[in-house]
Amino acid sequence: SLSERLNDTFDRLRGKGRLTEADIVSAMRDIRMALLEADVNFKVVRDFVAKTKERCSTSEVMDSLTPAQNVVKIVLDELTELLGSTESKLVLGNRIPNVIMLVGLQGSGKTTAAVKLAYLLKKQGRSPILAAADVYRPAAADQLSALGSEIEVPVFRGDGADPIEIARGSIREAVDTMRDVVIVDTAGRLQIDEQMMQEAVDIKRAVKPDQILMVVDAMTGQDIVNVVSTFAERTDFDGVIISKLDGDARGGGALSIRAVTGKPIKFVSMGEKPDSLEVFYPDRMAKRILGMGDVVGIIEKAQEMADVEQVEAAERMLREGFTMNDMLDQMRSLKKMGGMKSILGMLPGGQRALNQMGGNLDERVFDRNEAMIMSMTAQERLNPKIVNGQRRARIARGSGVQPSDVNSLMKQWGEMNKMMGKMRSMTNQMGGGKRGK
Ligand code: GDP
Ligand code: MG
């Protein structure tokens, strides 16, 4: 993956100590290849690499005590910049009802995004209504109605009417039923075609949306630039929702969007459930791409669970290191937090670890691990390094597992401990203050 490639590049740099011009050239070549293979638009790659290289080649970087770290920091900065620097919130206007229109190709995830957006707005105290203006796909209105009723948001279907009439009708309906936001779900085609573009333009003219959001599938490769540019020309839009970022999309297309259109990415959609729409933060995304782990995301996720202890534990681990007790707590709360995968994916190197395990995490392993940790002494839990071969055998007997299970637990702890160490040094580096010049 892109993260793995970039991480390998950084690891090579870190292994060097002092850097020469040739090291930079070769690192930039690696980065260029990695980005191109991830489907980032070639012009975007060219500019990105040129800018990054220029910043890395200064004597300030080359002669510093930690040149590799400086290079990583510069790549992170530039990647964040490429993704839009700062978050771009969805701002609703004062008009009642406010109208949001979604555009994009068929299958890009418009209908799913419409529902998620409705759900998000509802949680913020709004009362949205969904308009089913896709009249071509036979079951489109049914799909929207079913999803709408799941989240208890009404859907205006206007059966039999044309899309423009449905969009207009939905606004009247909103006024009649005291709804303050209308989300218009439109039809798409598999490819750009004139009829689709014209229809989008006509709906836009008819309802004068306050916001037009374009939905883009993260798995779209190079072609994304054409699609997005065409929509930008014909209907214009205010921002982008990137869908299906939970899949194994290379996501490179998404990296090009901001640079090519100048339009901000506002949300990312990370699954099929209504609550999986997230505000897009360029810096967090850049860190994720660089495999630096989404520390803030993890802490937020913990906060969502209103579990203050979690946050404190995470902060303490960053400060003091990772013990078996932490591992036990982590495993227990991971179970609670619903799935190891999403959390592991946020940890530095976590995605890689997941892939190595074949992406299949058997959560029953948790229970075995728990039994093994329970069989350790307090000393061993605090400092697992002291667990020798004899003790491993004893722990295996004590918890009814094979010695190889104990070995893999120890290995797992070792990996986690290493990750925590990496994360710690990164938070120190990124956290400002110590960014020595
Ligand atoms: P539309 O044609 O643009 O309205 O696209 P849909 O909303 O109908 O989505 C097409 C398919 O992609 C459906 O099977 C959705 O369940 C799926 N989908 C949409 N968004 C996501 C997402 O964020 N993650 C995943 N995994 N699937 C998604
Ligand atoms: Mg649809």
TrEMBL record:
Protein name: Signal recognition particle protein
GO CC terms in record: signal recognition particle
Description of how the protein assembles with itself and partners: Part of the signal recognition particle protein translocation system, which is composed of SRP and FtsY.
Gene (UniProt): ffh
Binding, GTP: 104-111, 185-189, 243-246
Function of the protein: Involved in targeting and insertion of nascent membrane proteins into the cytoplasmic membrane. Binds to the hydrophobic signal sequence of the ribosome-nascent chain (RNC) as it emerges from the ribosomes. The SRP-RNC complex is then targeted to the cytoplasmic membrane where it interacts with the SRP receptor FtsY.
Documented EC number(s): 3.6.5.4
SRP54-type proteins GTP-binding domain span: 264-277
Organism the protein comes from: Coriobacterium glomerans (strain ATCC 49209 / DSM 20642 / JCM 10262 / PW2)
InterPro entries, per the entry: AAA+_ATPase (IPR003593), P-loop_NTPase (IPR027417), Signal_recog_part_SRP54_M_sf (IPR036891), Signal_recog_particl_SRP54_hlx (IPR013822), Signal_recog_particle_SRP54_M (IPR004125), SRP (IPR004780), SRP54 (IPR022941), SRP54_GTPase_dom (IPR000897)
